Amino acid sequence: MIKKKVVYKSLAEQVYESIKESIIRSELKSGDRIIELEIARTYGVSQSTVREALGLLRRDELVVTHGNKGTYVSNFSKKDIEEIYTFREVIEVFAIRRAIERITDEDVAALEDIYNNMVEAGKTDDIDKMRLNDVAFHSIIYKIAEHSFMYQVWEDITNKMSRIWYFTGQFYFRDLQELAEMHKPILDAFKKKNKEEACEAFMKHLNYVRHQILSPANPS
């Protein structure tokens, strides 16, 4: 029997997670003010706990504090999006090449399970399930690559990636099934342990998504 680790989260971490998800899902939008007293009342916690949670959100660049003017949900521009995607061109291709050198049959099975979850999410039009599994699919590649610094960098940008994806995903895909299917060539290349095919499939996927997001017709 596999033992599961129980992760304890402080009140501040719980408030942080809740607000972070609201920002990622665009329930709290860029420029919205975060008022400590209102957050404290909503969650039934002290203002010091809220301040600690806001510190974690600032660390992730999800909120910004302007002197005595208060704390606001951070903005992101098309320039920010372009920089994130051009950075992924470098870091993820490197991760894919390292991962293919180390991948096991169990790793392939895990990738396929996540892909199947994406297909199911596409069939049921479940945007939350799709987002979580889309992030999980790419995250497992970084884990397989066994490069701790690179994985930490990836974790640092996943909040921004999730926020961008959730904000724009409803606009640039005809349906969620399309997103799932774009991962199939990547999965197939990993099964064959073919670095060039995997990198080519990833770049095709990345460039298509980037083009759709940065298209002048996109409402973001």
TrEMBL record:
Q: Which SMART domains does the UniProt entry name for this protein?
A: FCD (SM00895), HTH_GNTR (SM00345)
InterPro entries hit by this protein = GntR_C (IPR011711), TF_FadR/GntR_C (IPR008920), Tscrpt_reg_HTH_GntR (IPR000524), WH-like_DNA-bd_sf (IPR036388), WH_DNA-bd_sf (IPR036390)
Q: Which Pfam families match?
A: FCD, GntR
Q: Which UniProt keywords apply?
A: DNA-binding, Transcription, Transcription regulation
Task: State the Gene Ontology terms under molecular function.
Answer: DNA binding; DNA-binding transcription factor activity
- On whether Transcription regulation is a keyword of this UniProt record, the answer is yes
SUPFAM superfamilies the UniProt entry points to: GntR ligand-binding domain-like, Winged helix' DNA-binding domain
Gene3D superfamilies noted in UniProt: GntR ligand-binding domain-like, Winged helix-like DNA-binding domain superfamily/Winged helix DNA-binding domain
Tell me yes or no: is Nucleotidyltransferase among this UniProt entry's keywords.
no
- Recorded protein name is GntR family transcriptional regulator
